[in-house]
Amino acid sequence: MNLYPEAYQQSIASPQSFWADQARRISWYHQPRNVLTTTDDGFYHWYEDGVLNTCYLAVDRHVEEGRGQQVAIIYDSPVSGRQQCFTYSQLQHEVSRLAGALRQAGITKGDRVVIYMPVVPEAVFSMLACARIGAIHSVVFGGFAPHELAIRINDAKPKVVLTANYGLEVDRKIAYKPLVDEAIAQAIFKPGKVVVLLRDGLQADLTKGRDVLWQDFIAKAPLVDCVPVEAGHPLYILYTSGTTGKPKGIVRDHGGHAVALAYSMETIYGVKPGDVFWAASDVGWVVGHSYMVYGPLITGCTTILYEGKPVRTPDAGAFWRVIEEHQVKVLFTAPTAIRAIKKEDPELKLLGEYNISSLERLYLAGERCDVDTWHWAHHGLQVPVVDHWWQTESGWPIVAQFPGLGLMEPKAGSAGFPVPGYQVDILNEGGEVLIPAQEGYVAIKLPLPPGCLPTLYEDNDRFKSSYLDRFPGYYLTGDGGYKDEDNQVFIMGRIDDVINVAGHRLSTGEMEEMVAKHPAVAECAVVGMADEMKGQLPLALVVLKDQAKINEQVLESELVQVIRSNIGAVACFKQAIVVQRLPKTRSGKILRRIIRHIADGTHYAVPSTIDDPQILTEIHDALKSRLVGQAFLHQ
Ligand code: COA
Ligand code: AMP
Question: Other CB atoms closer than 10 Å to residue 175's CB: what's the count?
Fold first, then answer.
């Protein structure tokens, strides 16, 4: 029976009663009576008077309810050859001890802790230990360079940084500790303590008086209990790329987040306690937070921490091996991972070596899934492929399918139906709601449902100017798209300076700021160009200063190095092309969207505001020689 229409209707017509019902999915120290409150300055709060603790829900509750012996976490690291399981009881022990160590180090409710770690169980213990004592964690993706880590340290002002000596990247050990040292050297705010997990095979230099080895840190720590916190108390800050060099500190609360994740696990992912749920992502991304850690653990599932890649660790059969070995029911990954497998094993020969009959559904998100990849996965794996759409800001899906509500109509190219709680509208420039098939700004009518960001960390003004001011009464998602006649939503890509490279969200605006600082560069534009495997890649167009005497190749390699050492290798910034001028409007605004279309070889209309249309031919010619064979058409 299709329960979606009724659930959706109720969530929009009576959000308070809908979310009051959903709040019963979790346990509270104090059940909330005020489901939704609005402040005078236009902010919304869910479950304001509720008191709970997310770590209790994710760990202790399962032990109390008799699931202590069930496996909570399976750690699978193909490169190191390590596999380890933790039951809910063992998880409770590890987390309580680390929480005790943090408390001994002076961390109390509201203090920030930065976590810069690879995908290892201790990263999850760290997040949960912070939650347990009401500290606010901020996980920074290990692929980010010291400069990015320093920006986040300056903003979050953590008393403690938790890290490891290295992360594994296929056949390489990436030393994390020197990156942390470099970040702290660059940062204005200096954390008092750095705790280093020493993994086999690499030493780490410790700074006396500041650094301590993990094993020593927890050695004499007491086991501590969960601290009850108000529903609105921040659980974490997760920095995400905006349109400038300053990332946005997305705040997530304890109450709304726990309710929303519990709701999503049953209705969207169709899982229940005991099921094996695998989000093949990284703890540094929102997918890692919501669906490697909090969602599955709050639900009482077994979650998998996979410290490997879809290919090369050791081959394109890696995912199928993990599914068979751990009896995975639901897999969540980024389309780029599927494209990587498709490229290396187009006929899925390696799939024949494994039995993946436990797999019921494959979920994709993080970037647009092209139609070819969707069909390839659907036919090859013989399971429904659910493309669904959300973002760091929402913390859980905005548009999806609903096996838990009896609605599964996945369609190639579509990200699905609006999730209960989200009124998704497509708006034109003037803020009017568009009819089906018309493409426009994808916006969400306020209030956002529980789980979504209440604000940006210590920056209410930026929250309003980034998301709320453009269309009053709406949250601006930053994506463009349309709905079809069946109410399915098609997300066509970002309409701002944010790109997704292999599922990693990055800011072309930030790259542009860095490229512009090169002494030979007069001005530049960095845009996201379509890439067959990674979805998008950054491309810089550079205008040189008149007096600059630099060879184009030298300039390119210097710029590549700047982005690599400041943002990180994940940016995959590899191309900078010198042009005579940039296309602009008469008022001097760079036409980045047009540059993107030229690079992709897709159709565009020449805007009437363009200063000099002739320049488009120049750009076309400059890109043609360099990008031949690279562009692939959007579908
Ligand atoms: N720590 C340090 N370096 C990292 C890193 C990390 N956590 N993650 C990536 N990098 C580095 C890589 O080593 C690589 O460096 P190199 O240029 O020196 O070789 C660079 O960043 C790019 O890495 P990646 O984006 O992983 O590209 P790849 O070519 O190695 O692999 C894929 C391609 C498709 C297999 C890979 O991108 C992938 O698995 N993508 C899925 C991403 C994902 O799940 N995203 C989560 C959002 S849901
Ligand atoms: P992140 O905040 O890293 O999760 O990135 C969010 C952005 O990724 C969104 O704003 C979209 O641009 C893009 N995105 C995520 N999921 C999808 C999807 N299913 N289809 C298209 N784009 C997506």
Answer: 16
